[in-house]
Design brief:
97 residues; alpha+beta; globular
């Protein structure tokens, strides 16, 4: 719910540095919030044969550029993995509006 409005535009600009452009905030990569070249699909079978399953590892294998966003005053890529995280996201959305 906190994704930046300029996500697609900025990832497109970062795409020139590899076959993927990944969002990064607070020094952490967010490969789910990324732009991936369809050419990268050709590398999926070889990557899976290594028995690795990490999107970060796949991004390293195909080459990527990181596009930075500030994590202050709030991280636009906040992970919601628990009920507490959900409450925090709701609180932040109230502050944002």
């Amino acid at each position: 719910p906190l994704l930046p409005a300029d996500l697609a535009q900025r990832l497109s600009a970062g795409f020139e540095r590899g076959r993927a452009a990944l969002a990064r905030s607070g020094g952490r990569l967010h490969p789910v919030c990324g732009l991936w070249s369809t050419e990268a699909l050709n590398d999926v079978p070889e990557y899976l044969a290594t028995e690795r399953r990490s999107l970060k590892g796949f991004a390293e294998a195909v080459g990527y550029g990181a596009v930075d966003w500030s994590a202050e005053p709030l991280d636009p890529f906040l992970n919601i993995n628990s009920a507490e995280d959900l409450l925090e996201a709701r609180r932040l959305l109230q502050l944002k509006s």
